[in-house]
Amino acid sequence: AESADAAHFDVVVVGAGFAGMYMLHRLRGLGLSARVYEQGSGVGGTWYWNRYPGARCDVESMQYSYSFSEELQHEWNWSERYAPQPEILQYANHVADRFGLRRDIQFDTRVERAAFDERRNLWQVATSDGKAVTARFVVLATGCLSNARKPDIRGLDRFKGPVYHTGHWPHHPVDFTGLRVGVIGTGSSGIQSVPVIAEQAKHVTVFQRTAQFSIPARNAKLTDEERSWFRANYPEIRRFAREEAKNGIYTELPDRGALDDGDNERRAKYEARWQHGGLTFMSVYNNLALDQAANDTAADFVRDKIVEIVRDPATAKLLTPGSYPIGTKRICIDTDYFATFNRPNVTLVDIKADPIEEVTATAVRSGGNEHELDALVLATGFDAMTGSVAKIDIRGRDGQTLNQKWAEGPRTYLGLMSAGFPNLFVITGPGSPSVLSNMIVSIEQHVDWISDCLVYMRDNAVAAIEAEEDAESKWVAHVNEVASATLYPQADSWYMGANIPGKPRIFMPYIGGVGPYRQICNDVAARGYEGFAMTAAEAPRKV
Ligand code: NA7
User: Entry's Pfam families (predicted)?
Assistant: First the structure.
């Protein structure tokens, strides 16, 4: 509490989502002073902003939760297999209260500028409340999917009715009863919200640019038995998620490729996972992300399901994805998405064939057709992974900005630091498994690594740590090389920055797997932070 008014902190953390909260908790444990700045009025990050109808995590609740506190994981009762957004936000608030985090978090405040003072090895941080503080370290816990992007659609500002973005949903309840609602975008957010909105609205018009693959969630209430099973098995489940799972999720690891099985056997396996529901559909086989022919078998299975579910053949055809390998855009997890198009009050509009020409005061016009609407929902996604960082004016050595440095795409060493920006850490940054993993597993790993690094620096009287250019270049090359051995770069995905006009096309996350990645990070630390340059603190002068 004392440090609240001080102008200097050991660490400034940007963002009070799951990354910022755990970082703060660890810093406290190390006896370091910290201030967290959060632009929202509460904790939770992406779960604070994404309040759209039907919002859920696509990782199961019992796994999408912190593991750092035994008590926490035993006392919190998740109600459903996939927690709805309000419950995840409640959990974030519970964590903030339980660990007394709020007293070091300043809400409603953006970090606008951070400049490194090379002479003093200090960051000067300016915030939106007009104040300035200094800190030895800055940690960017700014999140990967929290920077909602408003699309450049002509006339959008002229629309008379309300316009909502799924990623920036109002705090008050939105009632669509009796309204004609247009939803633009069919990624996870569109796919989760359309069925819920369709139950309430008079009519829903879905504007689809790219048809997406989606797997049923099979959401259900969690039973006491299920919760107990998880709790009893948590040590192994968490260990597996950290060390063995590619994506930080406890599941069976496939030992066969899709083409190793005959047609019937393969179909039966896909069917079993389809019935089970959720993300593990993509780990039926070990080569779905690697081999086009293998991938086709999974894609065809899902295509057949869509045709089975959707009654109108023309609509079914439009909803059938064809332009990219399954899984290379993030797979969607839905509840009744495809079946929703059997409702009489839901219409699908193909804006690939007939792009939106403009929005008028009362309609969206595409292909010369006016679709009359009372409200618009933009489910158009995020400037992912780098968008929130890019909004901050970050200046490292020689006044170079991070945006200048990342103009051709983000460059990091291990996703943790960028050369030329000493004492600046990123949590789940580009170049780390991040969005290809269970985010909480990756967050905990980064926060623990950074915490250990700070202890090392303290014990060894190190004033500044910085990624070396050479190590960074090698890491960037490695990240690219691993990605290009997969089918992922084939899709126009937000992983590739392809959803933002003008954004460099680079596969941003590290696809080598959370287990191997953790090992690499641990090895680097064990070798005295290999690839990082350390500046010694000046020895105290003798008097
Ligand atoms: P996504 O996955 O980026 O989806 C955005 C959707 O909006 C997608 O269907 C886009 O079509 C569409 N889109 C984007 N811009 C436009 C414009 N200008 N006009 C028409 N349609 C557009 O975002 P989500 O919020 O659904 O999900 C993001 C992640 O959050 C998700 O993967 C989970 O990890 C959680 P496109 O496919 O680009 O043709």
Answer: Pyr_redox_3 (PF13738)
Summarised one tens digit per residue, pLDDT across range 474-523 is 999 999 999 999 999 999 999 999 999 999 999 999 999 999 999 999 99
Structure-token pair, residue 73: 């994981």
DSSP-assigned letters across all residues of 95-141: HHHHTTGGGGEE-S--EEEEEEETTTTEEEEEETTS-EEEEEEEEE-
Amino acid, res. 107: F
**CA 187 / ligand 1 centre spacing (Å):** 4
pLDDT of 323 > 60? The answer is yes
Predicted TM-score (pTM) of the model is 0.97
Output 526 or 543, whichever has higher pLDDT. Answer: 526
| C-alpha to C-alpha distance for 206 and 364, rounded to whole angstroms | 11
Q: How far apart are CA 529 and CA 527, in angstroms?
A: 6
Pairwise CA distance, residues 164 & 288, whole Å: 36
- Cα separation of 67 and 169, whole Å? 29
Q: Report residue 277 CA to chain centroid gap.
A: 21
Q: Name the helix (H) or strand (E) containing 405.
A: helix 402-405
User: Candidates 380, 382, 495, 508: which one to mutate for ligand 1, based on the most atoms within 8 Å of Cβ?
Assistant: 380
Q: Is 285 in the pocket of ligand 1 (CB under 6 A)?
A: no
DSSP notation for 39-91: SSSSS-THHHH---TT-B-SS-TTTSS--S-HHHHHH----BSS-BHHHHHHH
ipTM exceeding cut-off 0.90 for this assembly:
yes
Is the pLDDT score of 2 beyond 80?
Answer: no
Closest CA relative to residue 238, chosen from 224, 250, 228, 254: 250
Rounded to the nearest whole angstrom, what is the distance from the C-alpha of residue 186 to the centroid of ligand 1? 6
